[in-house]
Amino acid sequence: MRAGAERLIDLPLAVPTAISGLGESALLIVTAAFLAGWFWVSRQHAMALGWLLAVGGCAASMFLVKLGFLTCGHLILAAGIRSPSGHTAMAEVFYGAAAITLNSALAAHARSRLVGLALAAAVVVAVSLSRLMVHAHSAPEVVTGLAVGAVWLVGFVRLKRKVPVIAIPRAVLILGLVVVYGGFLAVVESGTHITAEGLLSHIALVLQQSAHVCTPD
Q1: I want to staple 21 with a disulfide (CB 3.0 to 4.6 A). Which of 13, 45, 187, 201 is the partner?
Q2: pLDDT averaged over the chain?
Q3: Are 78 and 140 in contact (CB under 8 A)?
Q4: Distance of CA 198 to CAs 28, 194, 195, 201, Å?
Q5: Distance CA 2, CA 176 (A)
Q6: What pLDDT score does 35 carry?
Q7: Are 85 and 149 spatial neighbours (Cβ–Cβ below 8 Å)?
Q8: 150: CB partners within 8 A, 6+ apart
Q9: With helix as H, strand as E and coil as C, how does the chain read?
């Protein structure tokens, strides 16, 4: 009876935890690398570089932003921010870029394009809310993550405007979906969360204690 009650208590967190998996950085980086590799092989070099720069740049930026707040956050007048949400940043740039890429590849009508963008936005909102619901981040941390993701997504949009209409075979689309959602299901089922928070906290501690960064003189 007690075990059943515990499962009922954990059930409300099961859904947002699963949704958070859609923003798992490792999963999205691998998928973006696969897409970039395919674009490069198919001689669509601008799109390959666009995906690498947008997703890779966002991941690198979040690493530095997190490190900055962990090291010097106590000196920044931004209450409630210790480690900005990487899930929201990565979800925003990845699903936003995916919607834009598919709209171009499928030569969708205006209404279909809006549907694709709306679905991407819905995923981003869901991931953002899930990070709050599982108490992984505060609201300011989620907003900061969204701001970082928005910067790289705008960069991707600007680059995409200079690229002609692209073509993506159905086989590539299906394989991409298999990679994303197969990996998503694996993350959800295993409960594994790949994170660099421990490494970042260690680096921040070393910077404070050894290099005296953001510490009183």
Answers
A1: 187
A2: 78
A3: yes
A4: 20, 10, 7, 5
A5: 42
A6: 85
A7: no
A8: 92
A9: CHHHHHHHHHHHHHHHHHHHHHHCHHHHHHHHHHHHHHHHHCCCHHHHHHHHHHHHHHHHHHHHHHHHHHHHHHHCCCCCCCCCCHHHHHHHHHHHHHHHHHHHHCCCCHHHHHHHHHHHHHHHHHHHHHHHHCCCCCHHHHHHHHHHHHHHHHHHHHHHCCCCCCCCCHHHHHHHHHHHHHHHHHHHHHCCCCCCHHHHHHHHHHHHHCCCCCCCC
**Is the pLDDT reported for residue 32 higher than 60?**
yes
Q: What is the dihedral of CA 26, 114, 150, 61, to 10 degrees?
A: 20
> pLDDT higher for 47 or 81?
47
Look at the chain and count its residues. Answer: 217
The confidence score (pLDDT) of residue 174 equals: 66
> How far is residue 145's CA from residue 80's CA, in Å, rounded to a whole number?
13
Yes or no: say if 179 and 19 are a contact pair by the CB < 8 Å rule. no
pLDDT band at 91 (very low <50, low <70, confident <90, very high): very high
Distance of CA 31 to the CA centre of its chain: 11
Instruction: Please enumerate, as own/partner, the contacts of 184-191 that have beta carbons within 8 Å and a separation of 24 or more.
Output: 184/21, 184/22, 184/24, 184/27, 187/21, 187/24, 187/27, 188/17, 188/18, 188/21
